[in-house]
Amino acid sequence: MGMLFSRRGFVAALLSSAAVPAVAEAPARSDRPQVRGGTQVVRRPKGTERIIAEAGLSGAVGFVVADARTGLVLESVGASASLPPASVAKAMTGAYALETLGAEYTFKTRIFARGTMSGGVLSGDLILACGGDPVLSTDHLGDMAAQLKERGLREVRGKFLVYGGALPRVDEIDKNQQDHFGYNPTISGAVLNFNRVHFQWKRASGDWNLTMDARAKRYRPQVAMAQISVADRSSPIFDYRDGGGVDRWRVASRALGNGGSRWLPVRKPELYVGDVFRTLARSHGIVLPAAQAGTRAPSGTVLVQRDSPPLRIIVRDMLKYSTNITAEVVGLTATIKRRGQVSGLRASASEMNRWAQQRFGVRAELVDHSGLGDASRITAGDMVKALVALGPQGRLAGLLKDIPMRNASYEVVKSDPNKVRAKTGTLNFVSSLAGYQRAPDGTELAFAIFCADVPLRKKTANANGDRPRGARTYNGRAKRLQQSLLRRWGQLYGA
Q1: Three-state secondary structure call for residue 205
Q2: 52: Cβ–Cβ under 8 A, 6 or more apart, which residues?
Q3: pLDDT tens digits, one per residue of 370-399
Q4: Interacting residues of 476 by C-beta distance below 8 A, sequence separation 6+
Q5: pLDDT digits (tens, 9 = 90+) for 62-83
Q6: Looking at residues 228-237, what average pLDDT do you find?
Q7: What is the pLDDT of residues 454-479, one digit of tens each?
């Protein structure tokens, strides 16, 4: 292609063309009229080959940028390379859930009483029925305990059951991740604090003081169903075993130092919810027996109900903070709405892939809804095709995160005329970015940039610790590449 198509009207006129080649390099000079009687310096943006070479990335790079309103592909490299999208998959999940469930959909958490209540005593069972609310926190349970007190409950003489059967149980989002990663918890209809427990340690008198709690902003109850001890070793840093009704962790003594904290995943979410709620209820003068996991759909009188924020808010925050469990929960819920039931994440992701094919004509091969599983694949070309169909003024676009523009030194440029709203994606040796760019002249672009060294990721998958050697450097270089491409596109297609 010998010219730059940077004006929307000119771009639209090209739609009748049978084939549109990708732009690989900018011309040596601007095709725009020059200022007469003065000096104008015309800066040629770096070409893509040079930008990619300067990034120094191993593995594969694939990207596409298109006019977001017409779908005209303006530039591409490796557009058909099927690569792991990482958390960019959450953008597809968000669109899937919003379209299937509706923007105002809410998740409901209810407390049922089954039996008779007299004088504040329930002669029967209390059931805490979790409806899959992915943002339920300890503070919310505290509010529900206060409401239960207002209903006059003081004691339960039957069972205290926690039901999580609204969603299928998934032991881990990705079984290839290490046990202690807090972003890879167990999934069920019972979700609390993103199904994470807070582990804190402090050196005291030659030993460590260890605590496990379910902290939120207002409440910080200690947790009995998750326990941890110190093992005299340097590695592995953590190990886990199922202790029946308890999550049992051990941590390497030589990794602790003098103090610190981190979130660990919860593997028994129903018991976790029950443990925390029982403590909160006790603080309000309500006596409950130890929690048990309920296996039957709840029935009885609803004493308390909490509705989650609307789905549009949940999806917005999911895209901003990239919470894996939120993506899996909203994706599973959408599939259940479409199919009536679902066996697990792969089956649910397959349904979302079918939806994407029908809705956008794209071929997605996602294995979950969060992008945590690195077996997921999609091409930059197909991702952009979906983004064009959804539109730069569509519901999803308004929920995407603002991505700041950075200069060549990777410093934020607050006054940059390019405006980018997109979803990031990061795994070790995988970095992606996809969304919309408003160029300086108002031109709306849709883009996807995927970088991945899949062989290197597989080679380092069993490395002890959170981040294998070289991963930070790789991802930093990939992010610089993304910024260089965004700057180039702003200059070429929206100057």
Answers
A1: coil
A2: 61, 77, 481
A3: 999 999 999 999 999 999 999 999 999 999
A4: none
A5: 999 999 999 999 999 999 999 9
A6: 94
A7: 999 999 887 655 789 999 999 999 99
CA distance 495 to 7: 9
CA pseudo-torsion sign 95, 96, 102, 108: negative
Tell me: do 112 and 56 sit in the same domain.
Answer: no
Q: How far is the C-alpha of 7 from the C-alpha of 30, rounded, in Å?
A: 13
Total number of domains constituting the chain: 2
DSSP-based three-state secondary structure for 472: helix
Pairing of strands 247-252, 226-231: parallel
Residue 372 burial (C-beta neighbours within 10 Å; 0-12, 13-18, 19+): buried
**Angle subtended at Cα 65 by Cα 62 and Cα 68, rounded to the nearest 5 degrees:** 145
Q: Which of 256, 275, 307 is the last residue of a domain?
A: 307
Output the pTM of the full model: 0.90
The residue that leads in pLDDT, 101 or 257, is 101
Residue ending a domain, choose from 307, 327, 344: 307
List Cα–Cα distances, 14 to 19, 20, 65, 72, 122, in angstroms: 10, 8, 16, 8, 73
Residues 268 and 409 in one domain: no
Specify whether the CB–CB gap between 224 and 245 falls below 8 A: no
Closest listed residue to residue 420, CA positions, set 441, 447, 458, 396: 447
